Amino acid sequence: MRRTLVRDALASREYGKEMTVAGWVRTRRDSKAGMSFVELNDGSCMGNLQVLAPASLANYASEVTRLHPGASIKVTGQLVESPASGQAVELQATTLTVLGFCDPLEYPLGKSRISFERLREVAHLRARTNTFGAVARVRNALAFATHRFFQERDFYYFNAPIITASDCEGAGEMFQVTTLDLEKPPRDPDSGKIDFKQDFFARPANLTVSGQLEAETHACALGNVYTFGPTFRAENSNTTRHLAEFWMIEPEIAFADLNDDADLAEDYLRFLFQEVLARCPEDLKFFDQRVEKGLLANLEALAKAEFTRISYTEAIALLEKAADKFEFKPYWGADLQSEHERYLAEELFHGPVIVMNYPKEIKAFYMRLNDDQKTVAAMDVLLPTVGEIIGGSQREERLDVLEARIRDIGMTPEDYWWYCDLRRFGTVPHAGFGLGFERMVRFCTGMGNIRDVIPFPRTPQSAEF
Ligand code: 4AD
Ligand code: MG
Fold first, then answer.
1. Residue 410 CB: number of other CB atoms within 10 A?
2. pTM for the full model?
3. Cα dist. 134→137, 276, 441, 448 in Å?
4. 299 alpha carbon to ligand 2 midpoint, in Å?
5. What are the helix (H) ranges across 322-416?
6. How many CB atoms are closer than 10 A to CB 115?
7. Nearest CA to ligand 1 atom 1
8. For FRET with 176, which of 86, 195, 197, 227 sits at 20 to 30 Å CA-CA?
9. pLDDT tens-digit profile of 55-91?
């Protein structure tokens, strides 16, 4: 017999229908009348299905009465109208098979509420809690919505390599990949030091910080593409919005400028908010009630929001007027700090803000130099509470300007010969951006810490799983 999802059983009104469900016990209650009520969750929704296990079951005394939270069972029975308030249906078991018992003395997810910090230490089990089950479903909905958005607009899904020699952001925040024999590592003949330049089969290699440069190769052949994959940053940031391993979505669009890029970012963000509202109403209601009051109203407003667009120069002028509010004083030439980003989105514009045209010194080498020679065609999209959610730019498509920029920051154009080739052979204006997927999941769930929206967070403190 096919397994019915708890979600579908709860929504069904086909009283008398026989069905089989399977899942994990949340609670068991025994009544004086000689039967047990078992709350069953299978991850298909927030709700539990109440299973009524009568004492007439062959394994009632031997097994049913030994069921504790966390045990796994399969139940076949009849769906009936529930006499109890608070639920429409329940399942009257005709057979109940125990798949796995769970020792209540050892199981870390007992009845009492456990802090999110403690749950990170049992990350392999935390998806069984209401909160983390809901996070996983929202994450899934946002991933599906991402593919839908780009596929419906004729973008090709592009898989960027994970191991690469390039440093897209030029920030040197890369994890090295090594095949070195650490017993007998190659050494520099003069200094005797280990030659880490020969890491990966005698070539330097690292984990990618961004799939953008490679995505540009396909945008300059196929038109519009997008990546959706893991990226890595070896920055020692212990904040609630940084991970060492995070997922990024990076569209790259050909024959496009910075305004086209900003238009795409707005459409994509609004679409994500609309989709998550449409597909996860029950989970969002839970987050709204338990995690962040007002979340639902915020998401509904954002699903229709107009984005404010201002230049970096305008943003600095506005921030300077409010300088006494900030720990870090804003000035032209300095990067925006999280406190500045939040002030712009939360207090000044009460909604999403796109800041454009940053000083070239604080942005990556590939961004297109503006006519003023001082700024580049960059954009950051800022949301209330999280700050930067998207970073993007129009790319430098002029070979001579690109080579000069690469040299300016101390890199060699020869190392990026293939990237420069795109400008040598039929160059086109193009643009793109990267959205930090976990920042988006965090925003849509109201979860306070980014470590709680990725199944197994990798941060300077944690990578044990
Ligand atoms: O601004 P970033 O560094 O831009 C790039 O990597 C470009 N190559 C993107 C592009 O144009 N294709 O990163 C993009 C986004 C940020 O806005 C942020 O949301 C997220 O990635 N991000 C992080 N998320 C979690 N942990 C970190 N350590 C992150 N660093 C960046
Ligand atoms: Mg950025």
1. 8
2. 0.95
3. 5, 12, 11, 15
4. 23
5. 338-342, 399-408
6. 7
7. 391
8. 227
9. 999 999 999 999 999 999 999 999 999 988 888 999 9
